[in-house]
Each structure stands twice: as C-alpha cells, then as structure tokens.
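--- STAGE predict ---
source: upstream dedup step, 1 unique chain passed
mode: sequence only
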Amino acid sequence: MNGDAGLDMVLDQLELNMRRHPRFDHRTVIVHFAVSRPEQVARIKRLGAIVSGNAYYPVALADNYRSNGLDPERADSMVRMGDVERAGISYSFHSDMPMAPGQPLFLMWSGVNRVTNDGNLRGPEQRVSRLGALKAVTLDAAYSLQLEKEVGSIVPGKLANFTILADNPVTCDPVKIKDISVWGTLHEGRVLPVARTGAAQATLGPVMDERAVAASIAAARDAHQGHDCATDDICTTARMLAEVVGGIVAKR
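--- STAGE serialize ---
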C-alpha cells in the first residue's frame, strides 16, 4: 500500500470485517507503507494490524519526491516507521527486490539512518532504533509470517539457522551497519563460512574449519564467564549462542 488514500480503504475494510467477524490475532500486514498520515498509525494500532515497510523508499525516493509528485513534508516522512515503533506496533522490513537490494543489513541501515543517495537526512523523527531494525529482519519478520515459533530468534525449540557477523549491528556505528561483513552462516547444524580474500580476509582473518570455529567459540564463552551482566542483557544472548554453536560444531 503506497498511498494514504489506499491505506484508508484497506483500514476501512479491515474495520468492517473485524466488526463482522472479530479475530484477536489476525496479523493483517500493511505492506510497503510508503505515504501515510500520523492518525493512520493510531488506527493501525487500534485494529491490531502490523506493518512491513520498505525502509529503502526514503533513501531512494525522498529527494526526488520532494518536488515531483509529493511535497517536502510527505516525501520526508515516507515509511514513517519511527511513528510505528513508538506506537508499539510490530513491524518488519522488506526489499521488493530488485527495487532495493535484498540485503537485511542494508535495510537495517536504511531504517536506522534515513540518509538519501545524495547524502541528505530525511525525516529524522522517523528513524528506528537499531534493536528494532534488527528485529525487523529477524523476529518481527517471522512474526509477520506467523513463523515466530520456528524461526526469528535463537532459543531452544526453534531452527538454529542464523548468520554470523563480523560486528554487532546494535552497538556499532549506525552508519556502518550496511558495511558489516558476513562471516558465514550456520544452517541445520552445518557451519558454512563465506570464502573471502584480500581486504575481507585482512579484516576477518582466514576462513576457519569447523573444529577451529568450535575452539574459537568455546574460548570466547570461557572468557565471558566472569562477566557480570544482567539476565536480560545482550551478553546473555551472546553467551547462550556461543554454547549452542560450540556444542553443535564440536559434535561434528
């Protein structure tokens, strides 16, 4: 849904059908969410809908749309995910590839920074938190597909398929999120490093075999044991992840 008038139509129909056949967990997803009004965010919240926004729209289109088709105010606030996040609405990111690169880290960067291709910051109040952006390509993305019990986070009982990054997108410099290197993935118990040469190898080091990965993770886990962190601290997640990955690889 790319226009606010079209969004009105969708929300009108959703409200009508909710009155006819109320459903608590319908998870109607508003996709694209290009141009909207602040009061529509409140209505989305009230009706129990969720949003899948294309965070690349402001990056690619805001500068042009300020004078072509829209106006500065509406162009700058395209994909108002900051309002969505503050309203407590579950949201995810999508790329519409090839409209935008199908790269989760790039979508995170777009939503967190909202810097256009010409280097202009548009709609700074619509930037989202880094943790929110991370969830938008992981747990909340799974929630939008009603798959949150299977994927989206690393907890017992879910598929342990995930990506290993060279840096933490929640704590690194926000403008560098899109440049974080991917070390590799773990899929169905298999460690799959990304082959790398040149600058990438100088940054991340050589590709390790599975036993070297297990040893490295075990060493990081042991070094972390003396750290005093809160039970809900991100360090707890990192420690649990180290134990899971180390255990899986060591058995191979």
